Amino acid sequence: MAQEVAFVTGAAQGIGEAIARRLATDGFAVAVADMNADKAREVADSIVQAGGRAVAVTLDVSNRLEVRAAVQKSANQLGDFNVIVNNAGLGPTTPIDSITPELFDKVYHVNVAGTIWGIQAAVEQFRDRHHGGKIINATSQAGVVGNPNLMLYSSTKFAIRGLTQVAARDLAPEGITANAYAPGIVKTPMMMDIAHQVGKNAGKDDAWGMSTFSDGIALGRLSEPSDVAKAVSFLAGHDSDYITGQTLIVDGGMQFQ
């Protein structure tokens, strides 16, 4: 069988990097896509050095033409296209009165439009190659229950759950599934920055800021990026072939559905 190909956005660090590395371990050829060209290249090179197959791709997910070109180029380089993981996103701390039109446009263009552009580009490749495929989108625990101080981030993540369900309905006849994963409080640079800003806004320290998000995790610890990557591995693999339109919550037991 030909090697399957996965395209992961925001793959230069954090959750995206963990996903790219896990899918490479699972046997996928991986396109490591990120705005940070140097770091994306480092991740791709290290996957290759470990015996995997990977290419680095530079793109801004908010730019529809860039996304389409990057997906097409990766598919041609790696010989197929089977899975897209729309992982890239922004998570600024946004108390209600701090939101400006410029910030709204920036966050929605990356988180929501970027996911839509990824879906469009992936579907084009699935159709051109006459087979189905898997669309996997990053939502969040904050897209299941609204989180304080995250008006923009939470609302974009709720939107991603909705567009994932629409894609699942629309694309099922073509053998294309669409699912989402919802991380909880993950030890990533973005999460640490959010905790810092929340603490700062309240006149408290970083630990206090993190506690506003991490209190109530049933398993009693913050998530590692690898915890999320394991869930995405399941959604990307064939054990999940009969699952579509779902959000897999990976939060250590913060929300029960």
From TrEMBL:
The keyword Oxidoreductase appears for this protein: yes
UniProt xrefs under InterPro entries: 23BDH (IPR014007), NAD(P)-bd_dom_sf (IPR036291), Sc_DH/Rdtase_CS (IPR020904), SDR_fam (IPR002347)
Catalytic activity annotation: (S)-acetoin + NAD(+) = diacetyl + NADH + H(+)
Gene3D superfamilies recorded: NAD(P)-binding Rossmann-like Domain
Transmembrane segment boundaries: none
Record has NAD as a keyword: yes
Family: Belongs to the short-chain dehydrogenases/reductases (SDR) family.
Full protein name: diacetyl reductase [(S)-acetoin forming]
Taxonomic lineage of the native organism: Bacteria, Bacillati, Actinomycetota, Actinomycetes, Bifidobacteriales
